[in-house]
Amino acid sequence: MKIELLCRYPVKSLLGEEIPRAEVTERGLAGDRALALLDLATGKVASAKYPSRWRKLLQLSTATGADGVEITGPEGLRLHAVDVSDASDASDVSVALSRLFGREVALIAEPPVQGELDRAVPEEVLAAGPTADVPYTVSRFGQGAPTGTFFDFAPVHLITTATLGRTGVAWQRYRPNLVIRTDEADGYAENDWLDRELLIGSHVRLRVTASTPRCAVPTLAHGELPPDPEALRVVSRENRTVPLPGAAALPCAGVYAQVVRPGRIELGDSVRFG
Asked: Which SUPFAM superfamilies match (predicted)?
């Protein structure tokens, strides 16, 4: 097996950027989910998992340069988040994004204490459509993720080319950090990786902790990719599995992992069980 693709998402729920290499720490890929939008009315972090309110997040792209994170979007939108600790920089970006979403938001670099986000029930989104207000659950940061990060559960997300081939879904919809090329003929090979360790290259070691339950996000438009309900329906039909001991069976694709030993990884690095 080897790394086919590396991607990070500098701002939570925005489109990511492909990268040739990455430093991996216990907090995941350097620069991944470094920023997020805070809904000032609710005190919750904005997430496309609640598409009736936040699906436009997936129309914004991010890129990391020498001057910080750049956010681009529809109608020529171009914003530089140089230093969100500087109130003037953060304010300019937040005002522009508040206009885009029609509600007051702030770009933040640290999650609020006991930070939360809303997650629409995926089956309800499929039935009613992404613009409908549907039942949702509330998730809290820190359940398996490093403290002080914007990860929903774990710092690294992996998926195999076999699973992508089986589902016929563009990798962007599942928002992985690593796409792993494998010789497996059948999809969902990751189901057998739970509690195993992966050695990447010569040094980095990851421990697979859970299968990845899929929400409504893969079904939404991602930039120029149109909506695709099959991105959720296909795994619901073919791969309902228990992501963690004691949990209910859920539609899953890919796996979450914790960082056991940090280091640098690159495209083409070997991936093997350690």
From this structure: PK beta-barrel domain-like
Q: Give dist(CA 23, CA 263) in Å, integer.
A: 6
Report the alpha-carbon distance of residue 155 to residue 180 in Å, rounded.
Answer: 16
Q: What is the mean pLDDT of the chain?
A: 91
pTM of the model as a whole: 0.93
Q: Is 259 helix (H, G, I), strand (E, B) or coil?
A: strand
Closest Cα partner for 58 from 25, 101, 106? 101
Q: Which domain holds residue 57?
A: 2-273
**Contact present, 257 and 274 (Cβ < 8 Å):** no
**How far apart, in whole angstroms, are the C-alpha atoms of residue 107 and residue 254?**
29
Q: What is the CATH number of the domain that holds 53?
A: 2.40.33.20
Tokens 């997020």 belong to 36
* Cβ–Cβ < 8 Å for 48, 220: yes
The count of structural domains within the chain is 1
**pLDDT tens, position by position, 35-73:** 999 999 999 999 999 999 999 999 999 999 888 899 999
Q: What is the pLDDT averaged over residues 226-231?
A: 96
pLDDT of residue 16: 96
Pairing of strands 105-108, 78-81: unpaired
- Name the residue type at position 91: S
Q: Evaluate the CA torsion angle 17, 21, 27, 28 in order and state its sign.
A: positive
User: What is the dihedral angle through the alpha carbons of 42, 45, 51, 55, rounded to the nearest 10 degrees?
Assistant: 120
CA dist., res. 187 & res. 1, Å (int): 14
38 class by beta-carbon count within 10 Å (0-12 exposed, 13-18 middle, 19+ buried):
buried
